[in-house]
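#struct-help
A.M.: can someone run this one for me? Single chain, 283 residues.
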Amino acid sequence: DLIEIRKLILGIYTTLPNNSSIVGVTNTIEIESIQYPFPYAEYTLVKIGDVNGSASFNVNDQDQSENRSMISLEMDDLNLQENQSYKVPVRAKDLLKLVGVQSTIEWDTDLIEITDITQGAIDIQADHVNMKYQVKGMMSFLWMSAEANIIEEDDVLFYVHLNAKDNSNLSDAISLGSTLTENVSITDDLQEVTPILVFDTDSSLATSLEIYPNPASDVINIRTADNQSVYVTLMNTQGQVILRKAIENTGKLDIHNIPNGVYLYEITTASGDTTIDKIVIQH
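D.P.: on it. Structure tokens below:
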């Protein structure tokens, strides 16, 4: 039932299919007072569960979202280059104790295509993400935990994987909203807070790297700006790791024993910024 409810919240379902989990009072029972309906022995009532904390027992309650406090989630404002792929960390800017996060990631389909969301400090799995509305520039996700996850400042909560369709700044292409799933996080004391997306304009990993030559035959040269330390991973197109190497400022990958073909390189900084692109090896 909770899996089905999760799909409803994510927007995968618009109604609960073939659901018989909620059975109420039968028509043969007369309730004299709605405030004091018990005891009745001959009926069953099963509640699926208030999995997103939004249930209300007061029909006069109003939307409290405008009164919530806010938490900042930070992404680097990358200078996206057309036809490049990126794995962008989403970091916490405050100390958090979370038991739940849900949101709708929205983007400009002319500028980028978001392909996936993967785990960082919170364990987001495939069944936590609704990919149904990618063509409309929307993807929703829902993560919950029975115990509070302590998120330190600058911890990576999760990663957003995207392809750039045009040259742009990331801040012009992506946002958080509530179109499919309400944008809200739940703290360990069950308080609702609203995540807002902020952008670090000091990071420009993708444009501060030189990777050459491409195609390459014996070595791949890598040069970083500002003496950055980076971690380089070379993978085949199935995602299998071929080699890894830590590089400071400048370095080389020895590829003379690697077969010809198209490969992916992933370069990650100490702060978690990541860029992914293709390279051809041709001896």
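A.M.: thanks! The longest strand covers residues 138-151.
D.P.: also worth noting: Confidence is low (pLDDT under 50) at residues 55-64.
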